[in-house]
Structures are given as structure tokens and as C-alpha cells.
Amino acid sequence: MNSVKASVDQLATAVDGQKRRVAEGGGEIAQKLKGLDATATDAQRRGELYQARSEELARRFEAMETALESKATQVSKQVDNVSIRQAYPTLGEQRFATYSNAPWKGIAGKMPNEKWVNIFISGGATPDFSVGQIEKLLAELKESAFTPFPGAFGLGGPYSTNMGSAGSSGGTAVFYFKKDFEQAASIISGIVSRALSIKTVSPRLINPAAQRDDLQFIIEHSGIDCQIFLDRPQK
What we know:
five-stranded mixed sheet; 53% helix; 2 domains
């Protein structure tokens, strides 16, 4: 009996030892499993961070690509604009009246009772008049309360041109642009005859609205009431 009991006790001890080893092994495995779980969790977190970072970088690259495309389009437009400006430097500008090829003050600079008279000499007629004659013409106009402007009125802006003769004449002429200026135009015609020692010319009414577009614009925006057009003497 004693030997049997000893064997049973020995077996029980062995079983307890095995249980402890199994328990210890289970705890070690549990720890390892916990460590593996933590590693997996960390890996998942890192993966999520990486994915978020990747998405953020993708958005930034997309934004950069859009910005570069926009910049390229903008640069292309700027190049086109430069090309257009080189070809047509005044394109899109507003029209304005000029005097001696410079911007003119126009009607806004005219006093209510002023009468503006333009004196224009045709290119072929300049040898036929002297400085003294033109000075005398200006002086007599001023004495009669007219404000003379010798030279060329014109148009500036998208294109430029000079008025030249306000009408067809076939010689020296006095053109006026409003019906109520007829009497003043007759006085001016007499002054031209005396100052230049030529026969008196009959004033001619010119309707600006019936003229070509640029001439109409110049007459209406320059503020001149009358033009003395000096041409070569009739033979």
C-alpha cells in the first residue's frame, strides 16, 4: 500500500508540475499573443497613418498639378496678349480728339462764348503762304473775338488720323458746322480775304452727321465751330 500511495503521490506531483508548466507556458503564450496583438494594432495604426499621408500627398500633388496647369494657361494668355499688343498696340483704346497729334482738351475746355476756328493749310499749298500772312490772319481773327487754332485736328485711340479738309472745296474754303454760325462764318470769310489778299469765298455749311465716321467724331469732339481750309490759289 505504501508503495502504491508513493506512486500516486509521485504521479500527482508530476501532474501538478505539468499543470504549472502548462500554466506558465500558457501565460508566456498569452504574453506573446498580447505582444503580437499590440504589434498588429501598431501596424494597423501605422498603415492608417501611411494611407492618410498618401491621400494628403495625392491631394497636394493634384493641387500642384492644377496650379501648374492654371499657371501654364495664364502664361500662354500673357504671351498671346504680348503678341497682340505688339501687332496692334492701341487695340481696345477709346477714341479721343487730338490737336497737333497730341490729346486735345475738347469741348470740356471751351468757354460758353468762345468761337473756335481751325486754320488748316493743305500740303501742296504751304509754299503759297507766308508766315506774315498767317500771323495777320490770326491777329484779325482774335480782334474779331475768334480763337484761332492753326494746325491739324485729328483722332487718336485705336487708330489715328487727321481731319484734313472738313469738306470738298476745290480751293480755299470756309466751312462751318452749325446753322446758327452762318453770320460768324461770313465775318471769318471776309477776314480771310483781307488778310491773305484773295477773293472772298462763300462759307459752306457742313453737316457733321453726314460725314464719314472719323470726321464726324473729330468735329463733334474737338469743339471747333469753323475751319479755314487754305488751298492753292485758283488759276
